[in-house]
Amino acid sequence: MNLAISIPTGDLSSSFIEKVRQIFGHKKVVLLPEKDYKEILKAKRNAEYLTKLDSSFKQIEEGKKVAFTVEELEAMAKCYQLGLWEEAIKERKELVEWP
Fold first, then answer.
1. Whole-model pTM above 0.85?
2. Which helix (H) or strand (E) covers residue 54, if one does?
């Protein structure tokens, strides 16, 4: 379990850190600046995105692709904005499932 707590630096005392360790048992407690924490989260999101891109490129190389007209994409965007995405997918199911 990951937990992020934002605490002003002046409030960090050894007794606070000890309380946190008591709450979470013998698990490691890591303190780092919020800026660093946000950079770690950003790097994780970027890595996940790059993994998705790699998967997409692999699917394209394997001939697994779907083509839509501009009109179809605009209709899907409108359905998404109106909260009708699930219905739109059901209607176009043959286009979004791989053979």
1. no
2. helix 34-61
